[in-house]
Amino acid sequence: MKEHKPIKRDKAFVTLSKDHHFSLLLVWKIRHDLAANLSSKDISSYLLEFFRNDLHPHFKEEEEILFSKLPDNDVLRIQAQKEHKNIYELIESISKNDSDKDLLKQFADLLEAHVRFEERVLFNHFQQTLKPEELGEIFVEIAAHNNSTKERKLFTSVSKKS
C-alpha cells in the first residue's frame, strides 16, 4: 500500500475537506451495507437522500466558487468537472434503478477516486497556482456560503439503523 504524507491544507479548503471526510464515510457505508447483503433499495434510498442534502450542495459550492478560479481550459478543472458529471449521471441511474448493486459499487468507487483526486491533486494545484489573496477570497466565499459546523443528522440517524 502506498504511503501518503499528510498534506498541509490551506484554510480555504478545510471546510471542503471536512465534507470529503463525510463523503468517504458514505463510501464506507455503501460498501459495508453491500457486503452485509442489506437491501440495495434501502442503500440507494439513503445514498439519494445523502446526495440531495450533502453531496449536491457540496458539488455546487465547488463548481461555483472553486472551479471558476481556474481557466476554462485547465486540465485539472476539466477533470473535476467531468467527474462531477459522471457522478450526477450515476445518481440519475441509481434513482431509476434502485435495486442495482453494481451501480452502487460503481458509485462508491467513483466517489472515492474523486475525493482522493480533489484532496491529493486539485487542492494542491489551487494552493500552488493561486496567490494568497485569491486563496483568502475562496475562504471568505466558502465561509459565507457554508456554515463550517454542519450537523450530520442524516448520516448519524440512518447509520444507527444499519
Structure characterization notes:
- The chain is mainly α.
- It has 6 helices and no strands.
- The relative contact order is 0.19.
- The C terminus is likely disordered.
Q: How far apart are the first and last residues' alpha carbons, in Å?
A: 30 Å
Number of helix segments?
6
- Label the structural class: mainly alpha
Rounded radius of gyration (Å): 16 Å
- Helical content stands at over 70%
β-strand number: 0
For the record, the CATH architecture stands as Up-down Bundle
Question: Topology of this structure?
Answer:
Layout: H1 14-35, H2 40-66, H3 75-96, H4 101-129, H5 132-145, H6 153-161
Helix pairs in contact: 1-2, 1-4, 2-3, 3-4
Tags for this entry?
162 residues; mainly alpha; Four Helix Bundle (Hemerythrin (Met), subunit A); disordered C terminus; 6 helices; 0% strand
Brief write-up:
With 162 residues, the protein is an all-alpha fold. It has 6 helices and no strands. α3 packs antiparallel against α4.
